[in-house]
Specification:
The chain is mostly helical. Helix content is 69%, strand content 1%. It contains 22 helices and two strands. The chain has a two-stranded antiparallel ribbon. The longest helix has 28 residues. The radius of gyration is 24 Å and the shape is globular. The N terminus and C terminus are likely disordered.
């Protein structure tokens, strides 16, 4: 064999040996780019005035924001203090601009002075800062949600789009866009993604891709710690534990050594992030210690008064019955997402053999929130409320994304079921699931909705039921069109 032939053979062998890794890197990059373009388009459609710098996200023109007053009283002036001290004095620890001198990392924590997006955009003038900040955060939240749906929860592209819409663009998220709680939520979604990718790479040798994945996990954990809202950090950490914990347990049952190594990598990344954010952690710890032992000490025991509040979320845009002083909660599921949720849950439970770990995680999230936020199990409520940080948190209000993620997953699976059943002409399955999902939601919407007086003049009840009627008619039309064509198989990613 000549020197040239040996060189060609060595080159081909190297390409073959690195082929799977190169393919994975290419797939990862393509998915990441696709998720970015998808989220950018969604933001342009749903938040055009924010993305195009026409209106500020910090001051609502109507009743849509959950807590609009804190923008003027806390976030905007707090950021101006951080900006002045950092750009003029090179200082982020102390300011003489407020209260005859005050620590920045404690008193202005809700301005998120150490959050990565804050540091990256601190040079942007205040008039445009919040538009750029919120737009980038919404894009990152949508990207992370889409990647979690496709890569970790094994949703088809169609289901991943629905999952992203029902989670990252829900009413709850829309009404918190002025608040640092969404800093923690966006960072928490990326923590889940990078930790899940590490578990999926457990069988692979250590590589450059795994190193950058661990680096992304550390950066996301740092952002989660420095998000500017301790309750959001606790919520995102709880969400990550409930999603990643079952994945680690399943891997440990299959390969204990691989699970231990993955857990070591995840732990090292999180500890590294905590060390980088040490100044913020110690500032908050000192501030809480100076506040006294009774500071919001029993807040974690708060619950919704009854399950009537859960029913309120179906139709109502007004304030919920209050579980405590100043307790207000704004959210609505919508009747179409509720039908998709019921259909997805029924379709997954009806076929136990197809029941996956992702289904179990979604049920765990829903059950955890319901049992903690509603008067179901007092001992469990007391146990969770005894955990540091959770002891001072308004759990029903700030930890709602736990319930929302499980709801969005089954809603996405419901849409995936309808699309595949219509394409494959599985009429009996389609009829059975629809017979379970639609009538119950119709009855619930018609019976419960009229009990509330909306704060806006438009008839939300009529709109919700009309939208559901259009959805059902569209479903019937799709079935009729599919019945006139030849049956064909569609490659949906049912896990």
């Amino acid at each position: 064999m000549s020197v040239g032939e040996r060189a060609i053979e060595a080159h081909v062998g190297a390409r073959l040996s690195s082929g799977p890794g190169a393919a994975r890197d290419s797939i990862f990059s393509g998915t990441l780019a696709g998720a970015f373009v998808f989220s950018l388009i969604l933001n342009l459609v749903l938040y055009p005035t924010i993305l195009l710098f026409i209106a500020s996200p910090m001051f609502a023109r109507s009743w849509t924001l959950q807590d609009p007053s804190v923008s003027a009283y806390s976030f905007v002036p707090g950021l101006e203090v951080v900006r002045y001290e950092l750009l003029h004095n090179g200082n982020m620890l102390w300011t003489a601009l407020k209260n005859f001198g005050a620590p920045i990392l404690a008193n202005e924590v809700q301005a998120a002075p150490m959050f990565p997006l804050t540091l990256a955009l601190i040079w942007v003038p205040g008039l445009y800062f919040w538009n750029a900040f919120v737009s980038l955060r919404l894009v990152l939240l949508a990207m992370g949600t889409f990647l979690v749906g496709t890569r970790l929860l094994k949703c088809s592209p169609l289901a991943a789009i629905a999952f992203t819409l029902m989670f990252a663009y829900s009413t709850y998220v829309c009404r918190w866009i002025n608040h640092p709680i969404e800093n923690g939520l966006a960072a928490g979604v990326w923590v889940i993604y990078f930790a899940g990718r590490e578990l999926q790479s457990a069988a692979e040798p250590w590589s450059r891709r795994r190193f950058f994945n661990a680096l992304g996990l550390a950066a996301s954990a740092y952002a989660m710690i420095t998000c500017g809202f301790p309750e959001a950090t606790a919520m995102s950490a709880c969400l990550a534990v409930l999603v990643i914990g079952p994945m680690i347990l399943r891997l440990a049952l299959q390969d204990f050594r691989a699970a231990a190594l993955c857990l070591a990598v995840i732990s090292f990344a999180i500890v590294s992030a905590a060390l980088l954010a040490g100044a913020q952690i110690f500032a908050l710890a000192e501030s809480v210690s100076l506040a006294g032992h009774d500071f919001r000490n029993q807040q974690g025991l708060g619950q919704f008064s009854s399950f009537a509040v859960l029913l309120d979320m179906i139709e109502r845009y007004d304030l919920f019955p209050r579980a405590g002083p100043g307790y207000a909660f704004l959210h609505t599921f919508g009747l179409v997402p509720l039908v998709l949720f019921a259909a997805g849950l029924a379709a997954r439970l009806a076929r136990p053999r197809n029941f996956t770990l992702a289904d179990a995680i979604a049920i765990l999230l829903i059950a955890f929130y319901v049992v903690k936020a509603f008067p179901v199990w007092p001992a469990f409520n007391a146990l969770i409320a005894s955990i540091p940080v959770l002891r001072q948190s308004w759990f029903p209000l700030y930890f709602f994304p736990l319930l929302l993620l499980g709801f969005a997953y089954f809603g996405a699976k419901g849409l995936e079921f309808y699309a595949s059943a219509i394409a494959e002409r599985r009429w009996m399955a389609l009829f059975g699931v629809t017979a379970i999902a639609c009538p119950g939601v119709f009855i619930l919407g018609l019976w419960w909705g009229p009990k509330f007086a909306e704060i806006n003049r438009f008839d939300i009840l009529l709109l919700s039921n009309a939208t559901l009627a259009v959805f059902v008619l569209s479903l019937i039309a799709a079935c009729w069109l599919a019945s006139r064509r030849e049956p064909r198989k569609v490659a949906f990613a049912f896990s």
